[in-house]
UniProtKB/TrEMBL annotation:
Catalytic activity line of the entry: D-maltose + ATP = alpha-maltose 1-phosphate + ADP + H(+)
Coiled coil location: none
Domain Maltokinase N-terminal cap, residue spans: 11-96
Subunit structure: Monomer.
Organism: Blastococcus saxobsidens (strain DD2)
Gene Ontology biological process: glycogen biosynthetic process
Record's protein name: Maltokinase
Stated family: Belongs to the aminoglycoside phosphotransferase family.
InterPro entries: Kinase-like_dom_sf, Mak_N_cap
Length: 455
């Protein structure tokens, strides 16, 4: 094994963006090239990991190289490598500000470097020459903000094919949708085995002076808890009007996606397939989170009800992982981000036509999350639990009303599919939390008691 792959074996599992947590590594190889030979030198590596369960994944890791250790970059240090008698020091290039300019310079020029191809969208200015600052929120990918003008998102896990984030943003821009940020360009890398190129990165206009929905919603919940006996509609930080606008923004995005991307009426087999897939996902999730087993019977009934449904659903492209952390509130309204779907799903399945209720369910789950997350670190308090539920119910209803007014169809009626999609999302969240934030596992687990019909 090369010195570099040894470093990756140590360093990658500790990175927030690494999706293979909890899996044992069987083998690792890497292939790299130089993207920029300036100071510092910038190299890009595709790291191919094979796990003992046979699954293979490829991650993208850009490194910056220095002749001496840089104290100010201590938290970005990956390791030292000896070459021809000298030691060079490798850093996480996304945290090394001096190594961030080449991405935009190449995008502005539309260059190709080795296997990597940079494509400007031809709309809006690319602020080349500026350094980028890493976005510090918890992320599946890694983003750099360039001078509050543009945001560059590096997709860490590579798969052949155009990333839906680039594809959908491009389509919604053509539809002139007001609830998205403009696409400024994207980057692809050739596949070594001749498959379609993988999308490496996306550049978008940065939305300044905005707050994300999670921050706003949880501030509203905090206000409610601070106010002794008042109800959600009586305290200053009521979020319902914003939830309603968010419902309308979601409906607008769905309507445009259905207009400019393919659609298809759902046939009976689709409901059967969705029901089976949910059950399979539950089986896999129980392996990771054994506590899910106590809800399994109830959940299987909820999923079985989907197979027999006669709902009229038009399948279309959807967001796929819509939650309060994916929406930004500006002075004028909501912007929806990150159309790449659930990061753990294979790319092909993230591009499949689906029910828009998948996104409605994601957002309904998120209201539940926002309401409950403060309870996790508190001793049990039935009064607060009641208020959390009240807050969630109020905002869920407002979101549905906003969606319904804007699209002329109520997404939240008594739908077996919606209930099953909510349960399926909560099962996904249990696995996500067990792997990334075990202290939050209780949030989706407690919701599952309700969704599986035990509460
Ligand atoms: N166009 C944008 N303008 C302003 N902030 C953005 C923009 N795009 C993303 N962000 C910020 O970056 C965070 C992560 O972006 P996101 O696309 O959701 O990445 P990930 O796929 O890693 O979750 C968002 O929660 C938001 O705070
Ligand atoms: O934003 P990502 O694409 O990285 O999505 C993943 O991480 C999310 C957490 O950051 C996770 O969302 C869950 O926690 C949110 C609060 O942090 C909450 O608003 C969501 O409702 C809940 O699902 C998401 O599931 C995961 O895919």
């Amino acid at each position: 094994m090369s010195a570099l792959t040894e470093l990756f074996r140590e360093w990658i599992p500790q990175q927030r963006w690494f999706g293979g947590k909890g899996r044992e590594w069987a083998d690792v190889t890497e292939e790299g090239f130089f993207l920029d030979r300036g100071n510092p030198v910038l190299s890009v590596h595709r790291v191919h990991i094979e796990y003992t369960d046979g699954v293979r994944e490829t991650y993208l890791v850009p490194l910056s190289w220095r002749d001496q250790q840089a104290d100010e970059l201590e938290s970005a240090f990956v390791g030292a490598v000896a070459s021809e008698g000298n030691e060079t020091f490798a850093y996480d290039a996304m945290r090394d500000r001096e190594a961030t300019a080449p991405w935009l310079i190449h995008l502005a020029q539309g260059s190709s470097v080795g296997p990597m191809h940079f494509s400007p969208a031809g709309e809006g200015d690319i602020p080349e020459g500026l350094p980028g600052d890493i976005v510090s929120t918890e992320q599946s990918n890694t983003s750099l903000v360039y001078g509050q003008e543009a945001i560059f998102k590096l997709f860490r896990r590579l798969e052949p094919g155009l990333n839906p984030d680039v594809e959908v943003h491009g389509a919604l821009r053509r539809a002139d949708n007001p609830h998205i940020a403009s696409l400024l360009g994207h980057v692809e890398i050739d596949d070594p085995s001749g498959a379609e190129p993988a999308t490496v990165a996306m550049l978008q206009t940065f939305v300044p002076n905005a707050s994300d929905g999670w921050r706003l919603a949880t501030a509203s919940v905090r206000d409610l808890y601070a106010e002794g006996d008042l109800h959600a509609d009586e305290v200053g930080g009521d979020f319902a009007a914003d939830s309603e606008r968010l419902g309308a923004a979601t409906a607008s995005v769905h309507a445009d996606m259905a207009e400019v991307l393919p659609t298809e009426a759902a046939a009976a087999e689709w409901f059967t397939t969705v029901s089976r897939q949910m059950s399979e996902r539950l089986d896999a999730a129980i392996e990771v989170v054994p506590q899910l087993a106590e809800h399994a019977d109830g959940l299987r009934e909820v999923y079985a009800a989907v197979a027999g449904t006669e709902e009229r659903v038009v399948r279309q492209r959807v967001h796929g992982d819509l939650h309060l952390g994916q929406v930004l509130r500006t002075a004028t309204g909501w912007i929806i981000l990150d159309f790449e779907g659930e990061p753990a799903r294979p790319l092909a399945s993230r591009r499949e036509l689906d029910s828009p209720l998948r996104d409605v369910a994601g957002m309904l789950r998120s209201f539940d999350y926002a309401a409950r997350h403060l309870l996790v670190e508190q001793p049990e308090d039935p009064q607060r639990e009641y208020r959390a539920q009240e807050w969630a119910a109020r905002n869920r209803a407002a979101f549905c009303a906003g969606y319904s007014h804007a699209r002329g169809l109520d997404p939240c009626g008594d739908s077996p599919l919606l209930r099953a999609l909510e349960a399926d999302k909560a099962v996904y969240e249990c696995v996500y939390e067990a792997r990334n934030r075990p202290h939050w596992l209780m949030i989706p687990l407690q919701s599952l008691a309700r969704l599986a019909g035990r509460d």
